[in-house]
Amino acid sequence: MKIRSLLWMAWGVSVFAGAADLPVAAVTRSPAAGGYVADASVQAVRQSVVASQVQGRVLELAVKAGDRVRAGQVLARIDDRELGAAEASSQAAIAEAQASLAKAEFDLRRNQSLAKQNFVSPSAVEQTDAQVKALRARVDALRAGASAASVSRSHALVTAPYDGVVAATHVETGDMAAPGKPIATLFQPGALRAVAFLPESQLTAVREGLAKGIAPEIEIGGKLLVGTRTSVLPAADPNTRTTEVRVDLPVDAQGTPGQFARARFALGETQRLAIPQAAVIRRSELNAVYVKTADGRFQQRQVRLGESLGGGRVEVLAGLKQGEQVALEPVKAGIAAAAK
């Protein structure tokens, strides 16, 4: 029994001696570029919601989401029978007015001839002339109405305004279309941007970083891209107290409208609490380090980490204080801590 106790004491002394020899690193503040990270979404620079301009039943939806379309290609066809009847009615009204105008012009010429022979009074000529002018104005108005009816009928064919991709369709065959009701959403691929909404507390610092020419970094699908142009909208949303910031992406950027992204805006250089990456033990979603205590032992402590700062160091957001020492070989430090 005494021999076993002596062996345990000897093993504990050796572990303690080993723990004392483990390399450590001090928690220090390191200069690093400050930044603000905001959630963003990918948008197409050119995106349109194509809506109906007339009322009628949708007879045909000619596209589906994901289709590529050319400018002028038919997206949907709306029943135009009522519009056609209105156009025909306008043409008939024009013909009637033109016939009345022709008769009035004949009467005017006749009255002018008779007035020269004093068979009709000048007032009769004036009355006929006024009638002719009124009928000419009516014909012009009816022609304008017929032109509007023709244009309205042409709107029964809903077409693509430019070459693009159908992002979504909003109606089905048989639905009732109405002026302003969306038919399809189109976007032009190849020109994308990331849109983020920044709080008022960060906007001034972000503006200063942009003024220095530091382009925001955008992370999309695990790939990091550098924005080519940044626009800060002049007005804030009164409900959320945020301001929209648009960052244009490189032409070779891979993404789709609506995709999640992260935008990082530079805020200048700051001093951040940091430790070596080698000191961190990562277990599932938890991060921990072994801190050297005043008596030379190691104690496990959970920490919250921030960004990688380069040079093999990582930012510490919570859990450590400046000047504390952490083990650079956390596995051995853990064995030593468990032995005590």
UniProtKB/TrEMBL annotation:
Coiled coil segments of this chain: 85-145
Domain CzcB-like C-terminal circularly permuted SH3-like residue range list: 273-328
GO MF, one annotated term: efflux transmembrane transporter activity
Occurrences of domain CusB-like beta-barrel (ranges): 197-266
Keyword annotations of the record: Coiled coil, Signal
Entry annotated with the keyword Ion transport: no
Gene3D superfamilies registered for this protein in UniProt: 2.40.30.170, 2.40.420.20, 2.40.50.100, Helix hairpin bin (1.10.287.470)
InterPro entries, A to Z: Beta-barrel_RND_2, CzcB_C, MdtA-like_BSH, MdtA-like_HH, RND_pump_MFP
Signal sequence range: 1-19
Top-rank taxon, per record: Bacteria
Multidrug resistance protein MdtA-like barrel-sandwich hybrid domain segment(s): 48-182
Domain Multidrug resistance protein MdtA-like alpha-helical hairpin: 87-147
GO annotations of cellular component type: efflux pump complex
Pfam families for the chain: Beta-barrel_RND_2 (PF25954), BSH_RND (PF25917), CzcB_C (PF25975), HH_MFP_RND (PF25876)
Family label: Belongs to the membrane fusion protein (MFP) (TC 8.A.1) family.
NCBIfam families named in the record: RND_mfp
PANTHER family for this protein: HLYD FAMILY SECRETION PROTEIN, MULTIDRUG RESISTANCE PROTEIN MDTA
Name of the protein in its database record: RND family efflux transporter MFP subunit
